Amino acid sequence: MSLYAARKRSNRIAMGLCTVAAVFGIVWLVLILAVLVWEGVSGLSWRVFTEITPSMGSTTGGLLNAIVGSLMMVFFAVLIGTPLGLLAGTYMAEYGRYEKLTHVVRFINDILLSAPSIVIGLFIYEILVAPFGGFSGWAGSAALAVIVIPVVVRTTEDMLLLVPGQLREAAAALGLPRSVIIKQVAYKAALAGIVTGILLAVARISGETAPLLFTALSNNFFSTSMTQPIASLPVVIYNFTKTPDENMQQLAWTGALLITFAVLVMSIIARALSTRMKK
Amino acid sequence: MVDVAIKNAAHGRDEAENRLRVLERFRRGDKFFFHLTRSAAFLVLVLLFAIVASLTYGAWPALSHFGFDFLISQSWNANTEQFGALATIYGTLVTSLIAMLIAVPVGIGIAIFLTELCPAVLRRPIGIAVELLAGIPSIIYGIWGFFVFAPVLQQTLQPFLISLFAPVPVLNALFAGPPYGLGILTAGLILAIMVLPFIASVSRDVFETVPAVMKEAAYGLGCTTWEVVRNVVIPHTRAGLVGGVMLALGRALGETMAVTFVIGNARQISASILQPGTTISATIALEYAEASEGLYRSSLVALGLILFVISFIVLAVARLMLARLNKQEA
């Protein structure tokens, strides 16, 4: 009987600790989101979207140039990174499913997936910024594209592997060549999954700060030139947080709220799409 | 298909010739697409190689000038051009260690709660929330830590720790004041909060690979929930758990933005974890854009190379462990 009581007691203690852990963890995360919404919403107004970043001591200003810069760099990063990732994922799932190359690429890709993003910034600095004379939007986009590629490779491979082999066999029986089967049948069947991968990649790079610090740098003025330094939301948040200026700090919070909101919306859509795909 | 393509092809030639032409076109298209995708797959390898090569190239002046001393020297002086990585490596390892000490038990606790204890109604919403939180950009944690968390720590936890451990011999050095708010401990705590949803969601996924029959068999023998977790679930998923934790460690080691704001940026190794320190990533983020050409910049690249090598090893081990779990499952 005493053994039974002891077992019951240790069960209660362990399970109690797990519940406490869950409550503890969730409280912290809710707290962060609550503070973010609280601080961010109080600075939300039209000027955030219509005015450019202010200088020290000013009481006006917004984030227009940073928002535009972020959108442009993310757009070009996805434009460069997606086709490359898509093709590599296609090889791994369709042609080289049992090849050694695929295993090696998958292993390396998984490591690139979680490689420190600041190192990618250094890499782009070495190959694009230093030799071609200066910080630019293109360098920023290239750094983000390096982050996009592994995400897209991973999801494309996973999603193409989910496409049933019978679909391909049926298409082959009609006399379709393999490349056409992949493009017309496999891609179409995996479309929702591939879009999920792209959305996840966008969500991932929208908040990336470290690789932009010394590739795109930042810009206090409105600029849409990709050959010049260009502002981006994360870098502006980073710079404004470090200032003692209250107006700038407020804008940093608001910018943080905008990024978090965008990232959460994209992740939710991606999730919804991928559950549909897996059904 | 060939017949359809022939119909769409140019008229006026005889059928056999058309058929040949179409087949030839298919063959060329196939070959082209195969080589296109294969080169894209190679590109991933090239990417890794290029990162290592360019970092090594950039770091070479510093590495060849300082040699092995770079790893064990603490000095970091831009005026005398004396650079060493020890203080930043120390900061990187200690902040990640603190983060893991807190986030691993709590994260696994959350995963156990979600898989074994949570009411079925709440299971999905909490699981989804944890997954979404894992995707929040790290700069959010940084700005929160800087404006909200660090001042609170300075007022509450840090003075408490200092007074609590003051009479204890070894620990009083570890928690020596004054409370700055910013420092190694604060950075470690922020990292812990940041990797927590990640560890929780990976562990939950791993726990869910345990076949229900195995757990039911244990319950049938009269095991308590804790005994099932300890004797069935955890042994079955050990490789996956270690893999997930290593992945989180890889993230914590390379994290820049959550750390830069709250670490205090002092290039020193002090016994007390309440004192300011720095990490590899924070040093690069703060100094690289302004660093002068030559040894200074090269030393920062060398730091980046060290960080890449450390996280490469950690991530490679993580992936091997996770792959082992998958094989076990199959």
From TrEMBL, chain A:
Q: Name where it's found.
A: Cell inner membrane; Cell membrane
InterPro entries attached to this UniProt entry: MetI-like, MetI-like_sf, Phosphate_PstA, Phosphate_transprt_permease
GO cellular component, alphabetical, reads: plasma membrane
What membrane topology is annotated for this entry? Multi-pass membrane protein
Just give the chief location class: membrane
Residues covered by the ABC transmembrane type-1 domain: 67-270
- Classify the source by domain of life: Bacteria
Q: Does Transmembrane show up as a keyword for this record?
A: yes
Q: Name one GO biological process term.
A: phosphate ion transmembrane transport
**CDD domains for this protein:** TM_PBP2 (cd06261)
Q: Which Pfam families match?
A: BPD_transp_1
Keywords of this protein's UniProt record, alphabetized?
A: Cell membrane, Membrane, Phosphate transport, Transmembrane, Transmembrane helix, Transport
- Is Membrane a UniProt keyword of this protein? yes
Q: Where are the transmembrane segments?
A: 12-38, 63-87, 107-129, 135-153, 185-205, 251-273
Q: Which PROSITE patterns match?
A: ABC_TM1
Q: Which GO terms describe its molecular function?
A: phosphate transmembrane transporter activity
Q: Which PANTHER family match?
A: PHOSPHATE TRANSPORT SYSTEM PERMEASE PROTEIN PSTA
NCBIfam families to which the protein is assigned, alphabetical: 3a0107s02c (TIGR00974)
The family note in this entry says: Belongs to the binding-protein-dependent transport system permease family. CysTW subfamily.
Protein's UniProt name: Phosphate transport system permease protein PstA
- Organism of provenance: Pseudochelatococcus contaminans
UniProtKB/TrEMBL annotation, chain B:
Which named protein is this?
Phosphate transport system permease protein
One annotated GO biological process:
phosphate ion transport
Q: Where in the cell is it found?
A: Cell inner membrane; Cell membrane
Q: What does UniProt give as GO cellular component?
A: plasma membrane
Q: Which Pfam families match?
A: BPD_transp_1 (PF00528)
Q: What does this protein do?
A: Part of the binding-protein-dependent transport system for phosphate; probably responsible for the translocation of the substrate across the membrane.
The alphabetized UniProt keywords are: Cell inner membrane, Cell membrane, Membrane, Phosphate transport, Transmembrane, Transmembrane helix, Transport
CDD domains annotated for this entry?
TM_PBP2
Q: Which domain of life is it from?
A: Bacteria
* GO MF, any single term: phosphate transmembrane transporter activity
